[in-house]
Amino acid sequence: MFAWLKKYCKPSELSKAGVLGMNARNFDVIGKYNNRRLYPLVDDKVKTKMLANNIGISTPKLIGKIECQYEVKDILKIIDGYKEFVIKPAQGSGGKGVLVIVNYEDGIFETASGRKISYHDVYQHISNILSGLYSLGGKYDTAIIEELVHFSDVFKEYSYQGVPDVRLIIYKGFPIMAMTRLPTKASGGRANLHQGAVGVGLDIRTGRALHGVLRNVPVTEQPDTGANLMQIQVPFWKEHLIIGALAYDMTNLGYLGADIVLDANKGPMMLELNARPGLAIQIANGIGLKTRIKEVDKYYPEGLNAQQRVDFVLNYTPKE
Asked: Are the beta carbons of 189 and 183 closer than 8 angstroms?
């Protein structure tokens, strides 16, 4: 998987090999195609959810939100009738501040990792969210409470406790690269590569596994279950791609990441969007984003709707 990368040492050589670096991403792609005034549409998860629902994109149900410190005491009223839910910062990133509760009973909250915490712990966590501890730029934030996604059994052997997701990179409305992020024991049940989750590159046309990576090291097995990662085939693949394509239509961001979860009962659901998606997806796919971006600029047609863009991707034969 890394043969294409190992032989290039200098940044200039990596660039020539089609690898998109941080500076090129920020200045040549994000700076060119993402108007900063549009960032709040994806940085604020409540706004993102409302926009998505308005155009028919399925998202996890919003149970409630807490915007001010004096509202934190109302958390038990908000979750009344719910035994499981997720508490997260509206403007968080990288999975920071996400608290997954898989069972709430008799004043005791059980997290995805099996840890038992108290009302005081949850109260403090929400207070930390409001203070901006997990938000972009440390700004005061809102705590949102969402329904818990029950991921499809197709991922059962590949994920440890948490909810796996699919990360799509969307460029000019076209899905150009994909991977699934699989929680591990080391990542604390979170689907975040920097925290120790496994990333598996996916063929953009089929949703089939290409390569696996764990902390930038190639892997073929899930470290906790031993399952063969190369057997992954994401179902409802076209529906995943359509959600990514529609994310472009609803935000007008020319370069973004779309995180999608596969609920066992409701199918693909958009979890969140990112105007500054990370670059590790290139390692998981064994190909540089710059290569895909050049193909879109040179060969992909303009003026297509979301469905047509996805159909084009599914039937496109790489020319470079």
From this structure: yes
pLDDT tens, residue by residue, 58-72: 999 999 999 999 999
> What are 294's two structure tokens?
């050049």
Q: What is the CA radius of gyration of the chain?
A: 19
Regions of the chain short of the pLDDT cut 70: 1-16, 320
What sign for the dihedral angle of Cα 185, 188, 193, 199?
A: positive
Contact 182, 158 (CB under 8 A): yes
In this predicted structure, what is the pLDDT of residue 296?
Answer: 97
Q: Helix, strand or coil for residue 47?
A: helix
- Strands 62-66, 85-89: parallel, antiparallel or unpaired by DSSP? unpaired
What is the DSSP code (8-state) at residue 80? Answer: T
Packing angle of the helix pair 306-315, 237-251 (nearest 10 deg): 130
Regarding pTM above 0.70, the answer is yes
Q: Any idea which residue has 């899930």 for tokens?
A: 222
Amino acid identity, position 20: L
154-158: long-range pairs with CB below 8 Å, 24+: 154/233, 154/234, 154/235, 154/262, 155/180, 155/182, 155/262, 157/222, 157/225, 157/227, 158/182, 158/198, 158/222, 158/225, 158/227, 158/229, 158/232
Q: Which residue has the tokens 């598996």?
A: 200
Identify the burial level of 118 via C-beta atoms within 10 angstroms of its C-beta, where 0-12 means exposed, 13-18 middle and 19 or more buried: exposed
Model pLDDT, residue 192 = 83
